[in-house]
């Protein structure tokens, strides 16, 4: 029997199939269980061996050419469908930007990026922790047991319920619990900063119930107070983009550091305005407190599961809002959180002003 005509007809119908559904119907018609070519294949079994030798290759050849044609046509139809979609779904990226771009980067976000950029250059990575904390991470592990008087200074917002481990839950009052979380997770050595929101029940012109801090922590072998002082000075010079930054360290007390120091930054008076920089002991000006710091208390290192005879470190906590006000000249902290678009369009930053060490961390607003 000659299958050429059957084959010809099948191939031309496949070539004419204009969509995938039609093609699928043809596949079923020829090669499906009840298909015509499948039917021919079944006849082979009933033939005597001699006839099978002759007919077999022909039927198989037919099946193969039809199946190849189906695959090729399917490929072509799919490519055409994709091309049509691509042509249909174009976006015109050449649309001009709006003349007056709306929306600005909040000074706090900008300053956090500036801080991260400067510390990244010193080899610090950014760590994070939850704003809803438990009292173990926020207080106990930082050497403030339940009866510690320093707890009372934190004006803490507590939640009514305890967590599964029966710990009191609270809004973190500082970024210091991230120290503990990072040491527990990553061990030592360590070099991190942890910027973020903190909460205290306090509100006036210089205090808001939510504000921002950045924590710093270095844990290594043979770390000493000199490293801390150099790090703070280097950071503040880069942040304020002035070489004449003068730092004054004062002895202080924090339960989680020993010894503890508070750092003041010198300002000078220019036309009655406070300008960061210069040495106040040599002229008109004064000192402004900008951060707390110290050598990490041995007890804290123990709470983190590390051996304090092997590992030491320093830590610091900086008020971000205060730094932003000093650098960019805002005088009321509360305006930071009012969401007033006029304030934001005046003090905000363009989304394109990404702080970089080469381009300058503090591009003027
Ligand atoms: N956690 C302190 C606060 O909120 C600030 C602070 C002081 C952080 C000394 C530190 C530190 O890491 O070493 O007032």
Automatic annotation (TrEMBL):
Cofactors demanded by this protein: Mg(2+)
The reaction(s) this protein catalyses: tRNA(Phe) + L-phenylalanine + ATP = L-phenylalanyl-tRNA(Phe) + AMP + diphosphate + H(+)
Keyword entries, A-Z: Aminoacyl-tRNA synthetase, ATP-binding, Cytoplasm, Ligase, Magnesium, Metal-binding, Nucleotide-binding, Protein biosynthesis
Residue ranges of every copy of the Aminoacyl-transfer RNA synthetases class-II family profile domain listed in the record: 109-364
Enzyme Commission number(s) of this protein: 6.1.1.20
One GO process term, biological-process aspect: phenylalanyl-tRNA aminoacylation
CDD domains attached to this UniProt entry: PheRS_alpha_core (cd00496)
Top EC class of this enzyme: ligase
Subcellular localization: Cytoplasm
Listed Pfam families: Phe_tRNA-synt_N (PF02912), tRNA-synt_2d (PF01409)
Annotated cofactor note: Binds 2 magnesium ions per tetramer.
One GO molecular-function entry: tRNA binding
This protein's record includes keyword Iron: no
Residues that, per the record, bind Mg(2+): 258
Xref: PROSITE patterns: AA_TRNA_LIGASE_II
One GO cellular component term: cytoplasm
Family of the protein in this entry: Belongs to the class-II aminoacyl-tRNA synthetase family. Phe-tRNA synthetase alpha subunit type 1 subfamily.
Record note on quaternary structure: Tetramer of two alpha and two beta subunits.
This protein's name: Phenylalanine--tRNA ligase alpha subunit
Protein source organism: Novosphingobium lindaniclasticum LE124
């Amino acid at each position: 029997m000659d299958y050429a005509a059957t084959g010809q007809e099948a191939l031309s119908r496949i070539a004419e199939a204009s969509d995938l559904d039609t093609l699928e119907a043809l596949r079923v018609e020829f090669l499906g269980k009840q298909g015509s070519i499948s039917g021919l294949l079944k006849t082979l079994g009933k033939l005597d061996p001699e006839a099978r030798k002759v007919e077999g290759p022909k039927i198989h050849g037919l099946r193969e050419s039809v199946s190849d044609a189906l695959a090729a046509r399917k490929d072509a139809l799919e490519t055409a469908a994709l091309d049509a979609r691509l042509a249909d779904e174009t976006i015109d990226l050449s649309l001009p930007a709006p003349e007056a771009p709306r929306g600005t980067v909040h000074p706090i976000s900008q300053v956090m990026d500036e801080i991260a950029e400067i510390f990244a250059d010193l080899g610090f990575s950014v760590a994070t922790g939850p704003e809803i904390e438990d009292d173990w991470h926020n207080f106990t592990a930082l050497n403030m047991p339940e009866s510690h008087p320093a707890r009372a200074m934190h004006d803490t917002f507590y939640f009514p319920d305890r967590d599964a481990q029966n710990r009191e839950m609270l809004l973190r009052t500082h970024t210091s619990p991230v120290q503990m979380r990072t040491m527990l997770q990553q061990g030592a050595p360590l070099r991190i900063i942890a910027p973020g929101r903190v909460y205290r029940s306090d509100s006036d012109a210089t205090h808001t119930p939510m504000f921002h801090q950045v924590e710093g922590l270095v844990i290594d072998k043979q770390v000493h107070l000199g490293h801390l002082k150099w790090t703070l000075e280097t950071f503040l010079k880069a942040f304020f983009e002035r070489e004449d930054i003068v730092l004054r360290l004062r002895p202080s007390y924090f339960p989680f550091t020993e010894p503890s120091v508070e750092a003041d930054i010198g300002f000078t008076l220019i036309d009655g305005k406070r300008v960061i920089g210069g040495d106040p002991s040599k002229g008109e000006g004064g000192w402004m407190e900008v951060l707390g710091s110290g050598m990490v208390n041995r007890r804290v290192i123990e709470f983190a599961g590390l051996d304090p005879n092997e590992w030491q470190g320093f830590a610091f906590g900086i008020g971000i809002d205060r730094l932003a006000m000093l650098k960019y000249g805002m005088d009321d902290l509360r305006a930071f959180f009012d969401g007033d678009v006029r304030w934001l369009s005046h003090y905000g930053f363009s989304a394109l002003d990404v702080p970089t060490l080469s381009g300058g961390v503090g591009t003027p607003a």
